[in-house]
Design brief:
Layout lengths: L3 H10 L5 E4 L3 H7 L5 E11 L9 E16 L9 H16 L12 E10 L3 E16 L1
Length: about 140
């Protein structure tokens, strides 16, 4: 999964982040967090569709799903009511930066696939945006 082009796009397009990095998963992002707001690009899944060729030739569509975990400051409000005012502009800027981006040659443009709360504690809100892109695996 090509995560570095995604991180590079966020670094270039979203100036609010104090850190943008790759991570293996949510736990790794939590361990790494030093400052907010930060973004961590993580792999989520890839799904291969059926081979459309016969014999030893292969042509399969692969849909890759990746996440961008946003870590935003929640120190001002222990209940989390005010954190959405911090999250929303960063979330919107992330969407603008990534929607339609082509991560590499032969890849489809990035599409938004949804978002969800991962964790809200007294210091940080962790929100995960999910995206998809696709390409073909071919061997002829």
């Amino acid at each position: 999964m090509l995560l570095q082009p995604i991180a590079n796009q966020l670094i270039a397009q979203v100036t609010d982040f104090r850190k943008v990095a790759g991570a293996a998963n949510f736990a790794a992002a939590q361990e790494d967090l030093k400052a907010t707001p930060s973004a961590y690009v993580i792999p989520l899944s890839d799904v291969a569709q059926r081979n459309t060729l016969v014999g030893l030739s292969v042509s399969q569509r692969v849909i890759e799903r990746f996440g961008v975990i946003l870590a935003v400051d929640n120190k001002r409000d222990v209940r989390g009511d005010a954190v959405n005012a911090v999250l929303e502009p960063i979330r919107a800027a992330t969407l603008v930066a990534l929607l339609g981006m082509v991560p590499a040659t032969d890849y489809d443009p990035v599409l938004y696939a949804g978002g969800r709360l991962l964790l809200l504690d007294v210091s940080v809100m962790w929100w995960q945006l999910e995206f998809t892109t696709g390409y073909f695996e071919r061997k002829v």
